[in-house]
Design a protein that fits this description.
Elements: E1 12-23, E2 28-34, E3 48-52, E4 58-62, E5 73-78, H1 84-91, E6 98-105, E7 118-123, H2 127-139, E8 146-152, H3 161-167, E9 173-179, E10 191-192, H4 195-202, E11 210-215, H5 217-229, E12 237-241
Parallel strand pairs: 7-8, 7-11, 8-9, 9-10, 11-12
Antiparallel strand pairs: 1-2, 1-6, 2-5, 3-4, 3-6
Helix pairs in contact: 4-5
Length: about 240
């Protein structure tokens, strides 16, 4: 995550309770946290929070719900073998447990003043903040064309694929899923290869776009270099690397 940066939404420390833990596939869970009713978490679409464990260890997670749904906090968390928080979450955390939450943080947030068309680039669970941005744009009735490119190894890793497809029913919203290892998914009918290359195949000139990218650092680095070479102004590339 990028360094914390205070924006219009004030940073708070909240005691939240686990409302639900939902499996989204072989190694991803969706965690719903309920903040105090009189102290909702105010954030901008794309930001993140820290969860603080009892021993003081902090873990950062992007907020997956749009700001107008501030009565809960939605997180998408991938299991990391041997990870302290992963073991705690996947093996011991249960509904009703209390967690200390701090935030919101981050400079990765939707620039709402812009009227440029938007390309959203997600890799793996980097989809979480992108989901918040999409739902905010749709709720606000945006007239900006929006293109979502979600990259994963196989279709099984596109853990909310049907939700993303449903957004495609909205006017001027376009969803392009991309799998990098088609040999593991012979029946996948969608795009193959690296997700940032799929963007360039469709938009070789990026000079008129805003691009928001969230995912593995190697994806962010590759996308930034390639997109700037294809005309994207650096000031219009917004990113956060896991």
């Amino acid at each position: 995550m990028q360094k914390p940066h205070r924006l219009h939404a004030p940073t708070k420390t909240l005691t939240c309770h686990v409302e639900a833990v939902e499996s989204l596939g072989r190694d991803v869970v969706r965690l719903f946290l309920a903040p105090p009713r009189d102290t909702p978490l105010q954030h901008q679409a794309g930001q993140y929070i820290d969860i603080v464990l009892d021993d003081g260890v902090r873990r950062s997670f992007s907020i997956a719900n749009a700001p107008h749904r501030g009565n809960f906090i939605e997180l998408h968390i991938r299991y990391v073998s041997g990870g302290e928080f992963s073991d705690f979450l996947f093996k011991r955390l249960k509904v009703g447990d209390a967690l200390e939450v701090r935030g919101p943080y981050g400079q990765f947030f939707l620039r709402e003043h812009s009227r440029r068309p938007v390309i959203l680039l997600a890799g793996g669970t980097g989809f979480a903040p992108i989901k918040g941005i999409v739902e905010h744009l749709l709720s606000a009735g945006t007239r900006r064309p929006v293109y979502l490119y979600w990259g994963a190894r196989t279709s099984r890793d596109l853990y909310l694929h049907q939700l993303a497809q449903s957004w495609g029913e909205e006017a001027d919203f376009h969803y392009v899923p991309v799998c990098s290892e088609p040999t593991d998914d012979a029946h996948w009918p969608g795009r193959h290869g690296l997700v940032h290359q799929a963007v360039l195949e469709d938009f070789p000139d990026l000079s008129g776009f805003d691009v928001y990218a969230n995912g593995p650092r190697i994806m962010i680095t590759s996308a930034r270099e390639a997109f700037l070479a294809h005309g994207l102004p650096e000031a219009h590339f917004f990113y956060d690397a896991a």
